[in-house]
Structure formats: C-alpha cells, structure tokens
Amino acid sequence: MELCEILKYDRSLYPGKAVFYYKTPDCDFVPLQASVARIRGQKVGITEGYNADSTPKNLAPQDLAYANPVIVEECYVPPNISELYCRFSLRVKANSLAPSGCSNVDVFNTLSALATKFKELGGYQELAKRYCKNILLGTWLWRNQYAGATSVTVVTSNGNSYVVDDIREITWGSRWPNEASEALNALTDEFLFALTNPCVFWHADITAKLDVAFCQEVFPSQVLITERQDGLPTKQFAKVKCIDGTEAVSFNSVKIGAAIQSIDDWWHSESDKRLRVHEYGADGQIGIAHRQPESESDFYSYFMSADHYLTRLEQINRKSTVAEMPESLTYLFAVLIKGGMFQQKQARRVKKKQEA
User: Pfam families under this entry (predicted)?
Assistant: First the structure.
C-alpha cells in the first residue's frame, strides 16, 4: 500500500491538564502554588573552566568562585499539609477505526477494513489494558510518583469507581493483588468499549492522593522559555488559573498523554523499557531512535504493509487468542491511536517511482 497526499488520523485519547491541590478543614480545593526564588547560581559548567578544545582557560583563582544571581520558580507542599492531590480528566474516542482524512479511496477502504478485523480479533484489548495500567500505576505523576503511599482513583462517566490503594505495591510486570487486578480488568473493559465504538462518549476523572513529607518538593511541568526577560524567572512551571484568580501548578496535557502512551516495549525482543509511542521509537532518555527505517521496524514500514496485514488477519480463525496478534500490528494501531499526519507528498512519490 502506498501513502497518499492526504492521510491523517485524529487522536483517540484526550487528556486534560492535571492540577495539583490540597485540602484544608475549610476547603476541599486549595490550589498548590509556585513561589519565586532568587538564588546565587554557581559557576559549575565545563565551559566556565575549559575552552572548546578541552584545554583549561586562563583564569584567576577568584573567577570560578563568583556566583550569578538567578530567578527561578519552585514548588513545595505547604507546612502542615500531609496529603497532596493531582487530578485530570481523560476522554476516549474511537478515531483509529478509519482515517479522518484520506485522498485515496482504496487506501481508506484498506485501513478501515484492517481496523475492523483488528477489532474483531481482539487487538484493541491489549492496547486498552496497557493504557489503563499506566493510569492506575500513576505513571502520569512522573517524578512525583516516587513519594509516600499514593492511591489512584478513577471515576468513569458510566458511574463506576476504581481504586488502587497504594501504587508502590504494584509494578508494570508484577502480579497485581486481586483488588487492583479486578479494577484494571473492569476499567480496561470500559476503555476498550470507548476505543472501539464511534457512538460512545466516555470520559474518566482520575485523581491521585499522595502522602507527602513536610514541605516536600513537587515537580509540575516546566514551561519552555525561548527568550529570557529581565526580572522574570528563567524556570517557570505550567499553571492553571482558577475562578478566584489564583494559579495552581499543573502538568500540561501533552505530558499526561505521553505517560499514558508509554507502552511500546515491542521495539526489541529483549527491551528493558517502555517507550512513548513514536513513529521511529524515539528514546528521549538517551537521545536515539530504536525503530530505524533501515531495520524496517518503524511505523511507516508497517503502515505501507497494511494490505498484507489485512490478508494475514483474514486468514486467522476468529477464535484465535489475542496473543497471536502480530506485535508490529499492535504497535501500528498504537500510533494510529496517537494520531497524526501520515501522508507523502506527490513529488516525492513520483521521484521514488522514477528511481525504481
């Protein structure tokens, strides 16, 4: 199957911003706020003492002892607060069942038929379970999940509530206690139904309660500062303005979505980490892409084989288990759930044909 000039998928997961707050005897929602700190920044970088060729600079003994004043934002739990909350909402839509825009009817029909067959054979089940695992594990708390006892509560639009009392007791690959396992399975069923039924409007309200230490540091999302301005912090946190004008520190929706979609451990047979779903298997921790085009393990290599996958699935007995589903195809649909533009410009396609 060839890519066409217009080919796009709307994303299927719509997380909101995650807001940090705490409770007092007088109020159930007090926004956690950042404060501005003016500190003496030390000269500790290698460029302070060495030239570009790694030779030492000609410096006086005092030159590296001077400090530069720096303005940053910081965030700590207020005194006498022992429990901190972080809450966001998540909507799920069945947008991966067909392209939202496609300039080739044959391509549209192939992709739609592939999604239908993938759904019939239970392929979405594995994806739904992985997303729900990340939700219940509190992966979306990022650095804040390594705190005291933390519980996660999910309330769905169906009126159901699922709770994991302490996320420290479970890991991605461990055997979950019965209550946590039951919550995961039930939440997966709801998530799966929303992910595969276009007429369903489903959302969930997710809240984490963290037991925190005295004045513990909190790590919200940071704002990307492209230009420094005098008098303003060089490090700033993402915030949400409340109706009373106060601002609560938060995670932006992209960071929440990245955590939920950190499910790709199919990139290698002996993989030791789950990557955020990405067309080329980008690994931000070490700055490389694990799914290189020459290895034919990237999204586009699989995507252009959609017609072959469809033929393969049509040969599978409907009673087959999900375990027989090709991992490459499950990864392909994870990217489609993420959404994006997958078209190829006409000029490039013509050039490839001429070269061939």
Answer: Cas_Csy3 (PF09615)
Give the three-class secondary structure for 307. Answer: helix
Strand partners, 162: 154
Residues contacting residue 221 through CB under 8 Å, at least 6 positions apart: 237, 238, 250, 251, 252, 255
CB distance 110 to 312 below 8 Å: no
The alpha-helical segments, DSSP class H, found in the chain are: 46-49, 105-120, 123-137, 178-196, 253-260, 299-303, 306-314, 327-338, 346-355
Q: Give the largest CA-CA distance in the chain.
A: 78
Q: Do the strands 7-9 and 101-102 form a parallel or antiparallel pair, or are they unpaired?
A: antiparallel
Phi/psi for 78 (5° steps) reads: -60, 155
Q: What digits encode the pLDDT tens for the residues 57-70? A: 999 988 888 888 88
User: What SS3 class is residue 154?
Assistant: strand
CA nearest neighbour of 128 among 352, 334, 346, 276: 334
d(CA 169, CA 177): 8
Q: Which residue's structure tokens are 């159930």?
A: 28
Quick one: tokens of 176?
Answer: 């979950």
Render pLDDT for 144-198 as a digit per residue (tens, 0 to 9). 998 889 999 999 999 999 999 999 989 998 999 999 999 999 999 999 999 999 9
Q: How far apart are CA 242 and CA 20, in angstroms?
A: 12
User: What does pTM read for this prediction?
Assistant: 0.91
Number of other CB atoms surrounding residue 132 within 10 Å? 24
Q: How far apart are CA 69 and CA 66, in angstroms?
A: 10
